[in-house]
């Protein structure tokens, strides 16, 4: 409300007074970061308990056969998911990333496949996608200069007011080794695509600096490593060099893409190490977190 109307607007001042009064009168307050808890205590005189957002149970790694089905489905609408070369055996199903053997029905990753990069957005001013586009241009130049890097399929999902503006910028790029796709996915396909991707990118900067991007929570639920632009409390979710990487600008993001995708796909690489760390972290799901963390607090009030 403050971003739209300004901090001194009468409606903003009324909402602030109302929230401060009611927050002090409540028996229990929940917030989503320790930074928010500290801000409430220092500036609002409100005591709160931190309960971090958790992914829903359907955010998980996608089995390879389901990945193939999804890629074949999306390939009917979006060329980035289509096979670059048709198989010699016309009975074989092939996408840009996977292939189903005609005889055995077994799905495998294609040799020399592109890496799948994904970001989701509501296309607002909170997210500066020129950072990603500039990083992709630098990545493309590295390939042209002879670096051993894979082609990229960059998928940016979502709808919002700035989508047409950024799509216009994307259409002006002359990529040879990168395809940028901006689909609107069906609700059931979004978690499947997150669980099929190789790397997530988050460009969200919290307007308050006190909350965390839910998209990264969902990516971590799918054991998908993330590169995320830095802001005040991001460290409470993204652990640099443990479950992902934090960057400040396009130059740093380009360097991270180069490092993570060097010798792709490399089982011993940092990208797979981040994924292994996420698998071993045994994250709670939303319903489990509610029962273990929130319900006891409610029962004690």
UniProtKB/TrEMBL annotation:
- Domain Glycosyl transferase family intervals: 113-262
One Pfam family hit: Glycos_transf_1
Asked whether the keyword Transmembrane helix is assigned, the reply is yes
Q: Which residues form a coiled coil?
A: none
Q: How does it sit in the membrane?
A: Single-pass membrane protein
Instruction: Keywords in alphabetical order, please.
Output: Endoplasmic reticulum, Glycosyltransferase, Membrane, Transferase, Transmembrane, Transmembrane helix
Protein name as annotated: Beta-1,4-mannosyltransferase
In which organism is this protein found? Vulpes vulpes (Red fox)
Q: Upper lineage ranks?
A: Eukaryota, Metazoa, Chordata, Craniata, Vertebrata
Encoded by which gene? ALG1
